Structure formats: C-alpha cells, structure tokens
Amino acid sequence: MWVFGYGSLIWKAGFHYDDRLVGFIKDYRRVFYQGSTDHRGTPEYPGRTVTLEPAQGALCWGAAYKISRKEDQQVALTYLEVREKQYDKKAYVDFFTDVNASSPAVTGVMLYIASPDKANVNYLGPASVEDIAKQIVNAKGPSGPNRDYLFNLEKQLLEMGCEDEHVTKIANEARKLISAAEDQNHQAPN
Ligand code: SIN
C-alpha cells in the first residue's frame, strides 16, 4: 500500500512506513480551498488547508509512503481516516519520481481529497490571495496556527525543489500581513 501526501502528510506521516519517495502526481493542482475546523481552525473561525483540484497538465509534488505489512496498513488506515476525516474522497493515482519518465514509479497510490461536493460542508473554494492569506494568518486550531501549516508547506516544497506558485503567493502575502501587524503593534501607544 502507498499513500501520497501533498499537505501536512509531507512533513508528518504519523504512521509507520517502510519507504518514502519524493515525487509528483499528474493532472492535479494543490489549492488552499478546504476549510479546517478540526486541525488548523475552529468551527467559529475555520482555517484553510490544501486539497487537490483536477487540472489537465499540472504536476503536484509531494511525498509517497510505502506501507508493506498488513498490520501497519490497518493501523495507518484507521489513523488516516480520523486525521483526514474532513477530506471526503479517496483516489488512487500514478506517482512519478522523474519528470522525463513516461511510466510511473508507483501505480495505485492512495490520496485524500476534499471535494467541492455539497456533502463536504467545510469546503470553502477559491478566494483572492489576500483573503486566503488573511484567513490563514488569523486562524489557529488544535494542531496549531494555520500560518505554521502554510510556512511549513512552503519550506518542504522548496526543499524538494518544487516551486508551487499558489503556495508561494499566499505565503508572501501572509508575511506582508504579519509584518504590517507587527509594525502597527510597535507604533501603538502604551
Ligand atoms: C495531505 O497532506 O495529503 C492531505 C492534506 C493535509 O492533511 O494537509
């Protein structure tokens, strides 16, 4: 069994695995369109986490984890079904490690998607870079500040050599908002 992570699963698997490969899947793009009320936000103030949107020709970089033993697979699945419970769909895709390869390194890699379906009550969808960044900067939940998720994701992707324009734009905007708020705090009279 293989699991593909494109968000927090990149830096925190949370289950036992036998191998980890950095690579990409095709025809999906990573987007901060899923509302998070259980990890990086609250029902009162949801955060935003990434999901996948179908996009012909796009590549989405991340990490694939191999889980070999039946017992480990069972434990990992039980864990992931709770952790990813706000992601309403599972898909099985081809995973590549080489941009020049025509055949995948691994087939049938499982991933979680938060879809725009009505049943996914936390789905937020597109918004301007400014609005997404503002929401992320201000949200925090049981797993920590939403901004840590954003900056960690940006860092992990850069370490992989992946420049994700959507993530970079939101991270740059978030940094602007944070430094503007800090400037204001410094200027505030005692
Ligand atoms: C993933 O990492 O693959 C799913 C999204 C998340 O948990 O951040």
TrEMBL record:
SUPFAM superfamilies in UniProt:
Gamma-glutamyl cyclotransferase-like
Q: Does the keyword Lyase apply?
A: yes
Keyword list, A-Z: Cytoplasm, Lyase
Give compartment(s). Answer: Cytoplasm
Q: Fetch the InterPro entries from UniProt.
A: ChaC, GGCT-like, GGCT-like_sf
Q: Name one GO biological process term.
A: glutathione catabolic process
Please, which domain of life does this record's source organism belong to? Answer: Eukaryota
Q: What is its EC number?
A: 4.3.2.7
User: Which GO cellular component terms are attached?
Assistant: cytoplasm
Q: Which GO terms describe its molecular function?
A: glutathione specific gamma-glutamylcyclotransferase activity
Q: Which cofactor does it need?
A: Mn(2+)
What is this protein's name? glutathione-specific gamma-glutamylcyclotransferase
Q: What is the species of this protein?
A: Artemisia annua (Sweet wormwood)
